Amino acid sequence: MIGRGRARSGAPRTGVDWFLTFMRVAILTLVAVGILAFIWQEIDTDNPFARWANPDATGLTGAQFRGLIISGVAQGCMYGLIALGYSMVYGVLGFINFAHGEVFMVGAMTGMITSNKLADAGLWESNFIGSLIFIVIVSMIVCTLVAVIMERVAYRPLRGSPRLIPLITSIGVSFFIQNASIVLLGPAAKAYPDVPDWVKDKHTFIQIEGSRILVVVVAAVSMGVLWYLVEHTKGGKAMRAVAEDAEIAALMGINVNRTIVKVFAVGGAMAGLAGILWGILFRSVIHTTGFLPGIKAFSAAVVGGIGHLGGAMAGGLSIGVAESVGPLLILEPLGVSGVSQLRDAVAFAVLIGVLLLRPAGIFGERLPAEDRT
Amino acid sequence: MSAANGTPPAPSTGSAANGNGRRPLLETRNLSVDFGGLHALDGLDFEVHEGEIVSVIGPNGAGKTTLFNAITATVEVAAGDIVFEGASLLGLDPNRVTARGIARTFQNVRLFANMTVLENVMVSQHCRTRQHAFGALFYTPSFRREETEIRERAEKVLSFFGSRLVGYRFDQPAFTLSYANRRRLEIARAMATQPKLILLDEPVAGMNPVESAELTGMIGRLRDEWGFAIVVIEHHMDVVREVSDRVVVLDHGTKIAEGDYAEVSTDPRVIEAYLGHGAETS
Amino acid sequence: MTATLPPQTGAAGASAEPPPAASRPALAQDWRRLVRMGAVGAVAQVFIALSNMPVRLDERVIVKPVLSLGYLTLLIVPFAAGHRVGHQVKREGMAVHAAGAHEMAGGAACGAVAGGGLSLLAVLLANFDLREPLVNWSPMLAELLAFGNATWFAVVIWLVIGAAVGALGGALRLLGPRTRRAVVTMALAVGGAAVLEPLVVDLAEGMRLEALTDWLYARRGGINWTSALGLAAASGILAVLGRGRIQQARTHIAALEGAQRTRTNGLLILATAAVLIVLPLFAGKLTNELLANVGLFVLLALGLNVVVGLAGILDLGYVAFFAVGSYSAAVLTAATSPRINPELPWLAALIVVVIITGLVGLFIGAPVIRMRGDYLAIVTLGFGEIIRLLFLSDWLSGWFGGSQGITKIPGAGIFGLTSVAGTDPRRVFYLVLAFCALAIYVSWRLERSRLGRAWMAVREDETVAEAMGINTVNVKLLAFVVGAVLGSFSGAIFSAKVGSVFPNSFLILVSIVILVVVIFGGMGNIVGVIAGSAVLIGVLGGPKQPGLLAEFSEFKLLIYGALLIWMMLARPEGLIPSVRRSRELHQQEMAQDAWLKGQVEDDNHDDGSSGPQAAPAT
What we know:
The complex is a heterotrimer.
Chain A: H1 15-43, H2 48-53, H3 62-93, H4 100-121, H5 123-126, H6 128-155, H7 164-185, E1 190-191, H8 197-200, E2 202-203, E3 208-209, H9 210-232, H10 234-244, H11 246-251, H12 256-282, E4 284-285, H13 291-304, H14 309-331, H15 343-357, H16 369-372
Antiparallel strand pairs in A: 1-4, 2-3
Helix pairs in contact in A: 3-9, 3-10, 3-12, 3-13, 3-14, 4-6, 4-7, 4-12, 4-13, 6-12, 9-10, 9-12, 10-12, 13-14, 13-15, 14-15
Chain B: H1 13-16, E1 26-35, E2 38-48, E3 53-57, H2 64-71, E4 79-84, E5 87-88, H3 94-100, E6 102-104, H4 117-123, H5 133-138, H6 141-159, H7 179-192, E7 197-201, H8 209-226, E8 229-233, H9 237-243, E9 246-251, E10 254-259, H10 261-266, H11 268-275, H12 278-281
Parallel strand pairs in B: 3-8, 3-9, 6-7, 7-8
Antiparallel strand pairs in B: 1-2, 1-4, 4-5, 9-10
Helix pairs in contact in B: 4-6, 4-7, 6-7
Chain C: H1 7-10, H2 31-50, H3 53-57, E1 61-64, E2 67-68, H4 69-85, E3 88-91, E4 94-97, H5 101-127, H6 139-145, H7 151-172, H8 177-195, H9 197-206, H10 210-216, E5 223-224, H11 225-255, H12 258-282, H13 285-310, H14 319-333, H15 346-368, H16 373-392, H17 397-400, E6 412-414, E7 417-419, H18 425-447, H19 450-460, H20 462-467, H21 472-498, H22 508-521, H23 526-540, H24 556-570, H25 579-585, H26 587-596
Parallel strand pairs in C: 1-5
Antiparallel strand pairs in C: 1-2, 3-4, 6-7
C-alpha cells in the first residue's frame, strides 16, 4: 500500500515541482500557440498574427494535410502492431523488452530477402497477393522464433532478478541483433522489389495510396484476431492470469513459462507482420530500421497505457499522427525551419510530454502485481 | 522534554487528555482516506500528546497502518487535516514530514538490506545534517566534524539496544541480522532521525515472548530516556496493556473506543468489533 | 565442486525440465545435453564464419606461422563447448562434473558436433550461392575453411579439429587447480602478448629495447612460435612459483588495519600515477593516442558510474552530456563557430561549459527523475536522441552548423601546456589524466559522504529512503548533474582533441558502449570502471576509435552487445565488483553462505548479552 501514490494534489512544493509545472504550462502553451498560428495561417497567411509567428508561412493545402494524416495513420498502425509486443511483455514480465524493435527489423529483413527471391522466380509480379501472404507467413515464423529464442537465452535465466537487469540485457540483445544484421547482411540499405501499380496508385475519392489502405486493413484484421485470441481462448486467459499475478497463476495450474513463451511468440509474430508492412510502405530496409520505430512503438505503448491491447493500438495511432502532423501543425507555424528533420524528436517529445502530463497513459496501466504496490 | 519526570506521566492523561488544556503534539481532524470507494479512514479524530504512549488497536483492515501512512504522507488524504505542533502536515512530502519530527517503522521490516547496520542508522540522520557535496569534496573541517558526529550519534542510538547491534555488528550488512534484530534496527533507524514522535507498526510481530517482553520495556524507556511520544500499532494485548497510556480502537476506519486499557478492553463495542455481531448471541 | 550450469538447466521454477534420470549408469554420457550444446556451438560456428570474422581477421597473426586470429575465432567455440559440456552428472539433485576420461570424450563429441557446423557450411558453400542476402557467402570463406584444399577436406578436417579442440576443453577440467591455473596463465600470456603487439612494439622502440621485440615478434606481425613456447614456459613457471606469493600479499594487505592500510593504498595509487605519468614519455604516437582514447572513455565511464553505479539511475542518454560538453566547448573556443564565437581560452570556456552542462543536466533530469526506473531509461534515451537531432537540424544549423558541424577547433591550452588538436596525443593524455584524477577524487569523496549514503539508500529502497527523511528527488538530481558535469569534461577535451564536432559523433550507441564499459568493469567500483574501460576500449576500441585489435573494428559493436548479454547472465556485478553491488545481486546466496558459516544469528539463541560464539570475521 505504501508507494508512489503519495499525495499529489495541491500546489507545487519543491523547486522541481515548480519546474515541472512550468514545463507543463510551457508545453501546452507551445502546442496551443502553434495550433492557433496554424489555423490563422490557414485562414489567411497575410494577417498580423500569422506573420508574427512565422513570416514565411505558407499554410497547408487540404490535400497536403489529408496526406499527412493518412500517412500518419498508416505508420501509426505499424507502430501499434509493434507496441503490442512491448505492451504484452511488460504486462506479463514487468520489463521493457528493448530488443523488440530489432525483432521488427528482422521481420522487415526477412520480408526483403523472401520477396526478392520470389521476384527472381517471377512469382512476385504474377501473383502479388499470394506472394505477400507467403512473405507475411515466413516473416511471422522467423520473428516468432527470434522472439522465443531471445526469451529462452537472454531473459528466462534472469527471471526474478532486479528489474533493471533484464532491461540492460535486452539492450545488449538489441545491440547484438543490429550488429549481427550488419555483419551477415552488410551495412547498406536494401530494397524491396517493385510493387504492382494498384499498390502505388491512389484510390477512392480521398486519394489514398493502395499501400496505406493495405496496411490499415491488415493491421485492423490482425488486431481483431489478436483481441479474439487474448480475450476468448484458453491460452489468452492464461496470459491475462499470468499478467495479473504469475505466482497465483502458477498455483492455479497454469504453466507460467509456456505462457510467457506464448506472449513472446505472439509479440514476435505481430512484429514480423509490422516488418512486412514497413517494407510495403517504405520499400527499403537497413539494420537501424528497428531502432527508432521500436522506441516510438514503446512510446505508443506507454501513451496508450502499458498492458492494454487497445491502448497500444490507440497509442500507435496517436504517435504516428503526431509525428507526421505535429511538426507541420505546431513547429512550422512557429517559424521553425526544416521541420521534417524533427519528426523523430517530436515522437520522443510526445512520450516525454505524456509521461509528464499523464504518467499512466490514456487508458491507465495494467501492471503485474508487484509493480502496482 | 527528555525529563518526563522520571516516572511515566500520570495514567489519567488518557481519559483526561481533552480536558487538561495542553495542545496535542499530533492531531488528526476528521481524517479520511479513500481507496477507490473504500473508506480506509473515515472522519478520524485522533491525538497524541507529548511524552505519551498511545496504542492503536483494531481488527485487520481497520485502517491502523493507513493512519500511519496518512501521517507520513505516503497515501493521499481525501479529507480532513493532520496537525503536528500546530502546523498542518498536509501537502508535505514524506521526507519533509520526517524532517518535522515524525519517524516510523514498517510492518513488514524494510531495512536497507545491503547497507551495514551502522550505515542504516547513519543515513537516517540525513535530514538532521547539512553538509553537502562541497564539504565532502574539499574535506572541510566542518564536514569531518559532522561525519564524526553522525557516526557517534549512530553508535549511541545503537547502543540503546544493549550489545545486540554494536561492535562487530556495526559493519555487517543488515540482511544477516536475525528477525528480532532487524526490528530493533528499524527502531534505531527511526530514533536516528531525531523525531519527536515515533510511529511503531507492530514492533513485536514475529518475536518470541522473551524478546517481546524485552522490547515492551524498551518502548517505555524510549519515552522516559529519550522523550519521544510514541504511537504503537499492536496485536499483542499484553504489550498493549504494558506500554499504553491510552488505547485507541479503530474499526472500519473510525474510532470506536478510546481510553485506558481497562476501559477499552471491557467496552462492548470493542468486543463486538473483534468477535463480530454474533459474539453476544452465541 | 559445483559446475557452472548451462542456462537451460539453470532456469529455475516450474519449467518443463526433463526429469533427472536417477538410474542413469554412472559413467554414461548425457547425450541430450551434449547434442544440445554441440548444436548451439555449431550454430555459433556458422554465425562466426558467415560474419566474415575468420576471413577478415586472418591477416592478424597470433603465433607465426601456426595460428591467425581468424582461425582462433573458429577454434574458440568448440573449445568452450567442450569445456562446458564436460561430463556432467546429477548427484543428489545437483549437477556436478565427474572427472575422468569421460570428460574428454564428452568434450570431443560436443566439439565434433560444433565443428560439424562448419563442415556442413563448407558443403553448402560449395553447392549453393546465397551471396544475395548473405554478403560473406564467398569462395574466400570456402577456401579458408578447406585450408585451400577440396571441400571434402574441409568436412573432415573440421570434424577432426572440433573433436580435438573439444577434447582439449574437456581435458582442462581434468587438471588440478594449480596446473589449470598455470595453463590458463600460459594461454593468457601468449594471447596477451599477441594482442598487445602494437603497444609493446611502440613502447620497446621508445625504450630502445628493439632486441626484445625482434626476438618476440615476427617481422610482419605475430609471435614467433619459438618465442611463444618460451613465453609460455616462462609464464607457466612464474604462475606455479608466484601464485602463493600473490595470495599472501593480498591477504596481508587485507589484514592491515586503518592507517596502515590507507598508507598502503596511497602507495599503490602513487605508484600507478607515477607509471602513468612516466609511460607516455617512452611511448610513441600510437600508444599515446590509445591512452588518450582510453582516458576519455574512463572519464565518461566515471561520470556514468556516478549516475548508474552510485545513485542507481539507468541513464541511457548519457551521450547527451558528452555532446553538449563538446558542442559548447566548440562554440566557445572556435573562431569558425557560426553564430557566437567569443574565442575564449579553453580553460575559461570549460567553466562556462560546466555551467551549461549542469543546467542541461537539471533540465533533462527534472522531468525524468520521478519516473520509474525503466521509463526513465527510455526517456533519457529519447533526450539523448533529441539533443543529437537538434544539433543536426537545419533549424539550429545557424548556431551549431547542422550536419557540417563545427571545425577548426583550437586545442586546449592550460597555462602554457597546449595540446593542439590531435597532433600531440601525449599532451592530450596528460590533460585527460588530470581530469580523470579529478573525476576519481570526486566520485571517491562523494561516495563516502552523507550524499553517497543517501544515494545508496535511494538505490536500495526509494520509498523507505524518503520516509527516513531523504529528499530523494534532490539527491537523485544531484547525481544526474554530477554525472553530466563529468561527462562535459570529456566532451570539452574531445572537441579540442579531434578539432571538430559533428552530430554523428554522438549517436546513442556511444551511451550504450559507455554503459557496457561500466557494467563490464563493475558498477559502483571506481577501479572496476577504469579497468573495464582500459580493457574494452584499449583492446576493442571505442565507437569510432580503433583499439589494439584494429581488425575488429567491424565486429566490436557486435562483441559489445554479446558481452553485455553475457555479463548480465553470468556476472552482473562486473569484472571487479563493488562489495555492495554484489550484495544486492547475490543477496540470497550470500545470506545462505553466511548462514552456513554461522554468521547469521539464530533467533532462539539470541540471548542478547553475548555475541556470537564464532570469532567475528569481517
